[in-house]
């Protein structure tokens, strides 16, 4: 029987990063993956393929709507080749997954393919695709099994017309009308992909705004942009039935006044979030307690109730984000090695990869109000930047929230071009407890989108923004 210092169940961003860090720290490590490729949901049916389709559809959207104003004359009709778009997406996924396999080999990590389940608290049995099984021993075990798309109890997902994000990433035709149930990150990103490709897209959201967990100002701005792009947004709508009739899907919902409304489309994307995936782990055999919805309770060291078993990523509390899982993977590896790492969950940024992009870190204005914090706001519109006008990306703004007494930055909220990359400036500043004055006095290259951060910081220090 093979024996390891650490065995990781699941090879998504949390799992494979944990494996690499364990190996770097001199721990004999194995990783178990039930699918034939490494990378988990993020690389195979999540972050990477969705961004590939977002980029491809963005190029098409630019070609038919914006090339002419840039003086680019495309003779003849510009058409979507969906098959080629999907082929390119699959190629990007394949290259990325192969990259993870390379990293496992480079770091001498044993990769075992099959379904891993607990035999007891120090042994994991792997049922392999060929019908064989193998049991390995581990001093420490990390559960990194990720999440699956969630649904509503009354919805039957046939994965043909009533689909999840997984099926939406490999459609063979462009829907005439796609209804998206859920106005969160996944639904909005995929909704924008198909809206760009020519689908009529209708979003139905239960809460009173889209991206409801983010700052309300971001929600309002993104809603305005989507309507301008031709998407139909319906908030405060409670879906109560989804039925398929042939090639048509009929959705019934109650609007905010309680009146029943009906929507019809040829595809319905159910994007109401994700649930922890802990099915088949046989956690009881190890004594690990799993909650009703599959969530695993952990302490400040990300230990389960069984001392040598840890859990990270989507199966534990907090935002279901790949980069959060990566931080936790590194954290647990260092805890096992006897180090004293730290994660500040307040500084895990959130991003929506629509166009314009949306990103945020720290406290929202609503959270500060609820907590009774005395705060100041500095806001700067992207349309006032020379770089934004040059690229034609004038929607959005940067908003900085500071402690009114100390000037410390408490939250940064952005919507605009490339803010998914830009938010890291805010994370860095907040990690070092920067004030708005600190950011305002840093030189920002001109012309860049980043100048909006400097200008918003100037505004937060006392209405000192230069270019508005």
From TrEMBL:
<dbReference type="GO" id="GO:0050660">
    <property type="term" value="F:flavin adenine dinucleotide binding"/>
</dbReference>
<feature type="binding site">
    <location>
        <begin position="320"/>
        <end position="323"/>
    </location>
    <ligand>
        <name>FAD</name>
    </ligand>
</feature>
<keyword id="KW-0285">Flavoprotein</keyword>
<dbReference type="GO" id="GO:0006103">
    <property type="term" value="P:2-oxoglutarate metabolic process"/>
</dbReference>
<dbReference type="InterPro" id="IPR050151">
    <property type="entry name" value="Class-I_Pyr_Nuc-Dis_Oxidored"/>
</dbReference>
<feature type="binding site">
    <location>
        <position position="51"/>
    </location>
    <ligand>
        <name>FAD</name>
    </ligand>
</feature>
<feature type="active site" description="Proton acceptor">
    <location>
        <position position="446"/>
    </location>
</feature>
<dbReference type="Pfam" id="PF02852">
    <property type="entry name" value="Pyr_redox_dim"/>
</dbReference>
<dbReference type="Pfam" id="PF07992">
    <property type="entry name" value="Pyr_redox_2"/>
</dbReference>
<dbReference type="GO" id="GO:0005737">
    <property type="term" value="C:cytoplasm"/>
</dbReference>
<keyword id="KW-0676">Redox-active center</keyword>
<feature type="binding site">
    <location>
        <position position="314"/>
    </location>
    <ligand>
        <name>FAD</name>
    </ligand>
</feature>
<feature type="binding site">
    <location>
        <begin position="145"/>
        <end position="147"/>
    </location>
    <ligand>
        <name>FAD</name>
    </ligand>
</feature>
<dbReference type="InterPro" id="IPR012999">
    <property type="entry name" value="Pyr_OxRdtase_I_AS"/>
</dbReference>
<feature type="domain" description="FAD/NAD(P)-binding">
    <location>
        <begin position="4"/>
        <end position="329"/>
    </location>
</feature>
<comment type="similarity">
    <text>Belongs to the class-I pyridine nucleotide-disulfide oxidoreductase family.</text>
</comment>
<feature type="binding site">
    <location>
        <position position="273"/>
    </location>
    <ligand>
        <name>NAD(+)</name>
    </ligand>
</feature>
<dbReference type="GO" id="GO:0004148">
    <property type="term" value="F:dihydrolipoyl dehydrogenase (NADH) activity"/>
</dbReference>
<feature type="disulfide bond" description="Redox-active">
    <location>
        <begin position="42"/>
        <end position="47"/>
    </location>
</feature>
<feature type="domain" description="Pyridine nucleotide-disulphide oxidoreductase dimerisation">
    <location>
        <begin position="348"/>
        <end position="457"/>
    </location>
</feature>
<dbReference type="InterPro" id="IPR016156">
    <property type="entry name" value="FAD/NAD-linked_Rdtase_dimer_sf"/>
</dbReference>
<keyword id="KW-1015">Disulfide bond</keyword>
<dbReference type="InterPro" id="IPR006258">
    <property type="entry name" value="Lipoamide_DH"/>
</dbReference>
<protein>
    <recommendedName>
        <fullName>Dihydrolipoyl dehydrogenase</fullName>
        <ecNumber>1.8.1.4</ecNumber>
    </recommendedName>
</protein>
<keyword id="KW-0560">Oxidoreductase</keyword>
<dbReference type="InterPro" id="IPR036188">
    <property type="entry name" value="FAD/NAD-bd_sf"/>
</dbReference>
<keyword id="KW-0520">NAD</keyword>
<dbReference type="InterPro" id="IPR001100">
    <property type="entry name" value="Pyr_nuc-diS_OxRdtase"/>
</dbReference>
<keyword id="KW-0547">Nucleotide-binding</keyword>
<dbReference type="InterPro" id="IPR023753">
    <property type="entry name" value="FAD/NAD-binding_dom"/>
</dbReference>
<keyword id="KW-0274">FAD</keyword>
<feature type="binding site">
    <location>
        <position position="116"/>
    </location>
    <ligand>
        <name>FAD</name>
    </ligand>
</feature>
<dbReference type="InterPro" id="IPR004099">
    <property type="entry name" value="Pyr_nucl-diS_OxRdtase_dimer"/>
</dbReference>
<feature type="binding site">
    <location>
        <position position="205"/>
    </location>
    <ligand>
        <name>NAD(+)</name>
    </ligand>
</feature>
<feature type="binding site">
    <location>
        <begin position="182"/>
        <end position="189"/>
    </location>
    <ligand>
        <name>NAD(+)</name>
    </ligand>
</feature>
